[in-house]
Amino acid sequence: MASYTTQKNAYNSLIYTTKNPKATSSIHSNNCHNSRFLRICLPQNNVVLRQKIALQNVDVPHYDQKISYTLSKLINYEIKSMETAASFVQKLQDCSDYSPSACFEFMDPQNSQVLMASNFRDLFQQSAIIIYPHELQSLFKRFDLLNDGVIDECEFMKYFRKRVVNPKECKTPIKEKSYLHNFKEKSQQKQLQSQQSNRSKKTSTTPIKKLNSILKQTGQSPKKEFDNQRSVSFVDSSKTSKTQNMNSSYILKTPNQQHKKYIDQKTELRAQMQLFKVQKSQQSSLNSTVKKPTQKRSTQKHGIKKSPKRNKNVFNPSIFLKDTLLKLMNFEKEIERIKLNLQTAPDFSICNTFRALDKRKMGFLVSEDLEEFINKQHLSLILKKASPDGRIKFNQFIQLISPISIYHQEQQSIREQSQTQNYFVQGRIKQQLCLLFEKLYQRELLFEQVNQEMKHNSQCDIKYLFMMIDEDSCDNEISLKDLDSFLYKQEVQPELEDLELLFNRLDTDRDGKVSFLDFINIFSF
Fold first, then answer.
1. Is 478:466 a contact under the CB 8 Å cutoff?
2. What are the residues facing 251 on neighbouring strands?
3. What domains are defined for the chain?
4. What is the pLDDT of residues 170-211, one digit of tens each?
């Protein structure tokens, strides 16, 4: 029924265009604008949604508030991305030796005159930038304006030309130079005024203030003779009898400027003398206490001396997490190297190794089997991580011994089909297996140490460590970029292969992201 209605609508539109030839050009232009708009807004991977939107009637508008809000946010993000792209293109144009054609030739070393997604991937690998396949695909589709799967030089140049901001085409009038000059002068005057006001506000530490602070600390009251509030002074008019001066016994005097300067200098000199006396008395009291120390003071001194040593041993979560991740990365590198050495050996077989270890013919391995093989005890830690019941089946044993590289896994599976059954493991293969189990055991001991250290330091919990790595994205999931940014903040820049080994170790369920549950499981909390 839906196909019938669409065919009928197409038929009616065709009849309308044949009757009205002038309307064909307008309809064609509207459809072109509509298709460009849909190409920007709709996701390119969802083909069903594109077909559904294409079959809708364009003349009937949609007044859904949620759609309008989401569309406005989308256009806002598109504008922001265009602005950032324009700023970066402007920086490139400021360089003296920049040209888009030279960039195209640099990205196309084979001179094929077109760019593929592999060219972008090679560019990011040369710059040591981590980019995921879906991000690379979306970036490639941004450049691929014709949507034909390749980018020619015209498309590449057009992408850069579209986002260049030309100041000559700006409609806003540019203000005159005189206005700008006056504006700069006014701003400079304001800065000078603010600096002068700040200087006037700064309080000068006079000897009187120092003296008053010292006397307050010792518990004594400041003397009245050093009070600086002397705007009006009452002076005894004369020492004669009251009979001679019946009308006025006290005279109100306002001191002039010279008399005021003299009083200020006099009080400052007295304050310096008194300050010198107080400081000298304090030094003498300290010397007397040092010569005859009591038991209480000696204990306090010993406590003060030991305090910096305690501060050195304070638990720092970021340093602790960085050291733990680096140790784990080194373990993963060594374990992966041993696994690759085993896989490259021509006479190595996972099936034969499992048969040789399973001497009891039970179909699974327990800790006693491994302990007899390498002559070491307490290897149950390795089995507990592989399986909760402490029994390793054949599929779990493959995951324990196989490297992360898919290529080596496929080569080993091909080799397993051609090898004969053997129940003995000897020579170099036995040495490598013993070394592998030893490193796995040391790695589990590292997890136990981390667990114990976290239990002793109650000020930091496992959730806090998780959020330290997930600080940039804050999505309750640790990605490869989050792990790389955390180590970069701690001044550690590992190789990409080593970083992927560490990330695969943390990602226990192999879903491409480290959740909080994975983080708890890996450290046995």
1. yes
2. 235
3. 2-61 (no CATH), 317-522 (1.10.238.10)
4. 444 444 444 445 555 766 777 777 777 665 554 455 556 666
